[in-house]
Design goal:
The complex is a heterotrimer of chains A (548), B (114) and C (467). With 548 residues, chain A is of the alpha/beta class. Chain A contains 18 helices and 28 strands. Chain A has one domain: TIM Barrel. An eight-stranded parallel beta sheet of chain A has the order 8-11-12-13-14-15-18-22. In chain A, helix 10 runs parallel beside helix 12 and helix 13 packs across helix 14. Chain B has 114 residues and is of the alpha/beta class. Chain B has a single domain, classed as Barwin-like endoglucanases (Beta Barrel). Chain B has four helices and six strands; from the N terminus they run βααβαβββαβ. In chain B, strand 3 and strand 4 form a beta hairpin. Chain C has 467 residues and is α/β, with parallel strands linked by helices. Chain C has three domains: 68 residues, no CATH class; 201 residues, Rossmann fold; 170 residues, Dimethylsulfoxide Reductase, domain 2 (3-Layer(aba) Sandwich). Chain C has a nine-stranded mixed beta sheet with strand order 5-4-18-17-16-6-7-14-15. In chain C, a hairpin with a 5-residue loop joins strand 19 and strand 20. Classes of the chains: A alpha/beta (548), B alpha/beta (114), C alpha/beta (467).
Chain lengths: 548, 114, 467
């Protein structure tokens, strides 16, 4: 027997199908959107409500080794924000790094039905998969960290582009990742091998490898293009957080040579000014470049005032923050693959740099000419929790509210930006693009982010309100795979989402190249490294389109 | 003539291998009830290998077999014993708010069992 | 999660060697399992080659295993004891599950303990049971590196996976541990003798320092042995921190700690000038005076040294999957051990919800003990209380705990009979390749049955939600 549902009388925002606030009915059968259902279908009357596709977070940190370290590190944060169980759902703890169950449920209560964990060292991917399996409601995937992979860098040093491409595909396939992630390329070797040094110029050679980060980034983008991954390399540029880093960011975008690339949390990479001096906003040169170059997608990485946690594969960055705060700090080196740094952090509105970053994020949104390519994120929990998305939406949709908010923060910082002159207000349709249709399109998720026939029935229904923060804070209904998970603001049932991953093809001979490297330099056996498919529960392979 | 000494329970290889055979087997019981003392302490207390000694703490007491260790291998005043039921018998339950009893540093009174 | 790790080509049945030598396995049904994982200690070595007698259900040979690993593999063979005992009498699996579920739902303060010799898959089910019944959950971490976990929450940790130590560490310090006897392959596979990417000559390229209150079989591996007076580790660590930062220390440091100023200065010099240093530490710090302060001092020392060079630290964890237990309990509750669900959400308080305390104070009125034997190594007061309350025990061998249990399940052994995931001491997750089938169920199967029965029994009643 099939399960059927219809949502009637709602005001529908489905930008991928050019539907902008039209009263329209939506029909669902067996977890998919269809063009009609039988008269016995369950009905939701959405009169006075806004109907949108479930939201998609293109960049967050929610599961795996580094997230769990950050979680364990902060009992003080959990005890202030408990997450009681209900008749249908498991208990947990919240704070800026919630437990897995709380993460899934809370994403649902924000109207999100898909989220992508943005940085996983392959050797710990098994851990990420276990945590994602315990992250309810939402669909999820992860990006595998390959930008400092010692074996891949060695292949590039030897100029073996073909094997390089095969090995990338092997890695993605072996750990069931969605796409690849590059973080502070080349810096791991200096961090671990040269007493905590960092790369400051992307055109300098990486120790021991005699190739530049720019060359590495360019090679990854080219390989991903040839593999036809649904989402291009997700790049965290070098020099994050440093004054004057816009030149690095521009160099990195140019390295794509017109091929698709996703620039992660670009706010952190948009500083003007000079190195080691006070930062200023360099947003205009960055957003102008993004606006003009359609091969680029980006998420903003908005900073929100309050508690955050820096958690990053960029170990030198966390070390820099540690030396500012002199507070508890985690560093975690992963053999041959990655670095990692974690530090609890609070963004404060009276501090110049914090207010500047907050304002720069808003500037990026407000100067964006293409909402399909400049997407909403806080780089959760780096810029702030995903729980602050409704406040961010209000800042974008309500210029009076934004101008009032501007007046409360460090004015010297605001003076450095164009924010006071900007009156733009995002429309509901634009919000639907930057939180739903845009990320789904950037990810190549054809069944997400829209409400057309054949789409996954991941739907959010909000009571229409003038206060957009209140509206987006508590959807009336959340439907996942056709199941009404939240009904009248309450959880009506539990639900397990699925893993989204890709399976790029590769020549099996490449494993004979990789295995000897494992014997020499890894501490686990090659045979035990790849994760067998029976390890995955519900999962969906998103197709790749390799270039011939 | 009881003397106060520091008892340091710990792991040993034979404790590790014997627990795989089974904790209710004789070998595990033998291993976990054999205490090592500095041989100079042994001389002073007129003990020889295989003698029984009584260890008494604030919470309990137990009788174990003693075995000499070279002076350079075990400091004076210290007794080493592999973890097991005899060391539990002597362990106080206060964890000082940590969950961890002071299980590697117990003051015990040592007397020879005639 | 996955029940069985794939065995692929490793599974070679009835293959007889072509050699002319007498075949010791003549006439036996032999299977070779390559790259199997040993789960005895926290090293979780995944390079075992097991020779399995399929018909006799036992492992005849464990190539590459250390002395502890060989005992682990050879001694877990087929058993003839009853699968389930209730009050010492044989019972069916269903009866055992029913009795266990009843004990758990009847209790006002049920607690569970152990879990470190169990897969992550089982650990996840255990937390779910306790969440369902508003119980208390604690793992062997609390009497192992629990204090280090508390120190971690206070100061953080600079750390690395063991492969990075192998590839880069030119200064290796062991503090308060005896790996030669507790983790025999820590030296040979990961941290001392192996050659690595930037350590081409293995041990020759490293300086090894051992710090302990007594000489142990580990001492000979060290280039430098630093002997500390019992209970004075904190003072030595704090003095090192001061010296690293160029501050003054007490003139009578040697009198206080047994370690001379010259030895300290030499060590400080080596730590500040190495290329990649590592501090491994054991229960010599966590189980003695100072406990979490000792671990915190050591973790802070390692963090401070990053102002001069690259420096990491790592607790040397004990049982095969104690690190998995920390991870699972953390991701499900936010806290690593000592967690209580009594209010319908997790609360954490070492000293309050840790097992030694809930037992010694006589608070728990039922306990489920998984793959652990607190009745033989806990303080006397805790053991006395265990004898008064109903105990559910799941273990691969009879123990003192299982002998006082009201409901006792014999379970198969993880890594030998059942697959799943374990986390090595450095948080690297590793899969298991079981060698042969056991007649007993795995603890995951028992726990899932108990969970399902508990949910069923509670479904008639008002669900236990937040008060």
């Amino acid at each position: 027997m099939s399960s059927e549902l219809k949502i009637v009388n709602g005001r529908v925002y489905d930008p991928a199908n050019n539907i902008d606030g039209k009263i329209q009915d939506i029909f669902i059968r067996d977890g998919k959107i269809v063009d009609s259902v039988s008269s016995s279908a369950t009905k939701i009357d959405a009169h006075g409500m806004v109907v949108m596709p479930g939201a998609v977070d293109i960049h967050c940190h929610i599961a795996g080794a580094k997230v769990n370290l950050a979680r364990k590190l902060q009992p003080e944060d959990h005890r202030l924000d408990v997450h009681p169980k209900t008749a249908h759902t498991r208990s947990g703890t919240g704070g800026v790094v919630p437990s897995t169950f709380a993460t899934g449920y809370r994403y649902a209560t924000m109207g999100y039905t898909t989220a992508m964990e943005a940085a996983v060292p392959p050797i710990t991917a098994r851990h990420t998969l276990e945590e994602l399996d315990d992250t309810p409601v939402i669909d999820k995937g992860f990006y595998v960290l390959l930008g400092n992979n010692a074996f891949l860098l060695k292949l590039l040093k030897e100029g073996r582009k073909k094997e390089f491409k095969e090995a990338i595909a092997w890695w993605i396939d072996s750990v069931h990742a969605y796409t690849l992630k590059l973080v502070n390329v080349g810096a791991d070797e200096l961090w671990k091998g040269r007493k905590n040094a960092n790369i400051t110029n992307v055109n300098d050679n990486i120790d021991h490898y005699n190739i530049t980060p720019t060359h590495v980034i360019e090679s990854f983008i080219e390989a991903a293009h040839e593999l036809g991954l649904p989402h291009p390399p997700h790049v965290h540029c070098n020099n994050l957080g440093h004054s004057g880093n816009i030149s690095t960011t521009l160099d990195t975008m140019k390295a794509a040579q017109g091929r698709r690339v996703h620039m992660a949390h670009i706010q952190f990479h948009s500083f003007g000014g000079e190195v080691n001096k006070d930062a200023v906003s360099g947003v205009r040169s960055i957003i102008d470049y993004v606006n003009e170059n359609e091969n680029i997608t980006t998420d903003v990485g908005q900073v929100m005032f309050g508690k955050a946690t820096a958690m990053t594969a960029d170990a030198p960055l966390a070390w820099m923050l540690r030396n500012v705060k002199m507070n508890k700090w985690i560093n975690a080196d992963t053999e041959c693959e990655s670095g990692c740094g974690i530090i609890p952090f609070t963004y404060q509105d009276h501090i110049y740099t914090h207010a500047l970053q907050w304002a720069m994020g808003l500037e990026l949104f407000l100067h964006s000419k293409d909402p399909w390519r400049v997407l909403l994120s806080t780089d959760h929990p780096n810029g702030g929790s995903f729980m602050s998305y409704p406040t961010l939406i209000k800042l974008l949709m309500d210029s009076a509210y934004r101008k009032e908010a501007l007046s409360y923060v460090n004015q010297k910082a605001i003076d450095q930006t164009s924010l006071r002159e900007l009156d733009r207000e995002y429309t509901l349709s634009e919000i639907a693009i930057i939180t739903r249709a845009g990320p789904a399109r950037a990810l190549g998720l054809k069944n997400k982010g829209h409400l057309g026939v054949g789409a996954d029935a991941d739907i959010t229904i909000y009571t229409e309100e003038d206060d957009k923060e209140a509206m987006f804070n508590a959807p009336r209904y959340v439907i996942k795979d056709g199941v009404t998970v939240i009904k009248n603001h309450e959880f009506a049932t539990d639900h397990k989402g699925k893993l989204l991953h890709t399976k790029p093809g590769y020549n099996a001979d490449i494993s004979q190249e990789i295995e000897p490297f494992f014997e020499d330099y890894y501490s686990v056996k090659f045979n035990n490294y790849a994760i067998s498919e029976d390890y995955l529960h519900d999962h969906e392979v998103i197709p790749t389109h390799p270039k011939a | 003539m009881a003397e106060t000494m520091i008892l340091v329970p710990g792991r040993s290889q034979s404790q590790g291998t014997s627990l795989n055979e089974g904790k209710l087997e004789d070998e595990y019981k033998r291993v976990t009830s054999t205490a090592e003392l500095n041989e100079k302490d042994m001389q002073r207390l007129k003990l020889k290998d295989g003698d029984k000694i009584k260890l008494k703490s604030d919470v309990g007491q137990t009788v174990v077999t003693c075995k000499g260790k070279k002076h350079e291998d075990l400091p004076l005043g210290m007794i080493f014993i592999p973890y097991g039921p005899p060391s539990s018998e002597l362990m106080a339950s206060d964890t000082a708010g940590t969950g961890m009893p002071l299980s590697k540093h117990m003051e015990v009174k040592v007397t020879k069992v005639k | 999660m996955t029940k069985e790790a794939t065995q692929t080509d490793a599974q070679v049945k009835n293959k007889k060697p072509v050699s002319k030598k007498v075949d010791p396995y003549e006439g036996k049904n032999i299977k070779i399992v390559k790259d199997a994982t040993c789960t005895f200690c926290g090293c979780v070595c995944d390079d075992m080659e097991l020779t399995v007698d399929v018909d006799e259900h036992r492992i005849l040979k464990a190539k590459k295993a250390c002395v502890l690993g060989r005992a682990w593999f050879y001694e877990h063979k087929v058993d003839t004891r009853p699968g389930v005992l209730i009050d010492g009498k044989e019972a069916t699996f269903q009866e055992g599950v029913e009795a266990a579920a009843q004990i758990l739902i009847d209790a006002k303060f049920p607690t569970t303990y152990g879990m470190s010799d169990s897969t992550c898959e089982s650990q996840r089910v255990t937390v779910e049971i306790m969440d369902t019944i508003n119980g208390n959950i604690d793992t062997t971490t609390s009497v192992c590196h629990g204090p280090s976990g508390m120190a971690f929450q206070g100061v953080g940790e600079s750390t690395a996976t063991l492969g990075e130590v192998k590839n880069r560490a030119d200064l290796v310090i062991y503090w308060g541990g005896n790996p030669a006897e507790s983790h025999p392959r820590h030296f040979t596979r990961y941290a001392v003798t192996p050659k690595g990417m930037y350590i081409p000559n293995g041990k020759k390229d490293r300086t090894v320092v051992l710090v302990d209150v007594r000489r142990t079989p580990s001492t000979p591996v060290a280039d430098i042995f630093m002997q500390v007076k019992p209970g004075k580790d904190f003072e030595v660590l704090w003095a090192l921190r001061a010296l690293v930062k160029g501050k003054k220390i007490a003139n009578d440091i040697e009198k206080q700690t047994g370690v001379s100023r010259e030895v300290l200065d030499d060590l400080v010099d080596r730590m500040k000038n190495c290329q990649f240093g590592v501090l491994f530490f054991g229960m010599g710090l966590t189980m003695t005076r100072g406990r979490h302060f000792n671990s915190g001092a050591l973790l802070s020392l390692a963090a401070d040294l990053n102002e001069f060079t690259h420096f990491v630290a790592k607790p040397v964890r004990g049982h095969g999957n104690v690190t998995g237990a920390d991870n699972v309990v953390s991701w499900q509750t936010g806290y690593p051990f000592g967690v209580n669900f009594n209010r319908g959400y997790p609360r954490f308080n070492p000293g309050e919800f840790t097992t030694t305390d809930v037992l010694s104070r006589g608070e728990a009125d039922a306990a489920m003990i998984i793959a652990s034997d607190p009745a033989s190594n806990f303080p006397k007061a805790a053991i006395e209380h265990m004898k008064k309350i109903p105990i559910i025990s799941l273990d691969t061998k009879d123990t003192v705990t299982s002998s006082i249990a009201k409901v006792r399940f014999a379970v198969s052994t993880y890594g030998i009979n059942t697959g799943g995931t374990v986390y090595r001491m450095d948080d690297v997750p590793i899969t298991l390749r079981p060698a042969f089938e056991s007649t007993y169920p795995g603890d995951q199967e028992v726990l899932e049955a108990i969970r399902d029965r508990v949910k069923k029994l509670l479904s008639g009643k008002k669900a236990r939600v937040a008060a």
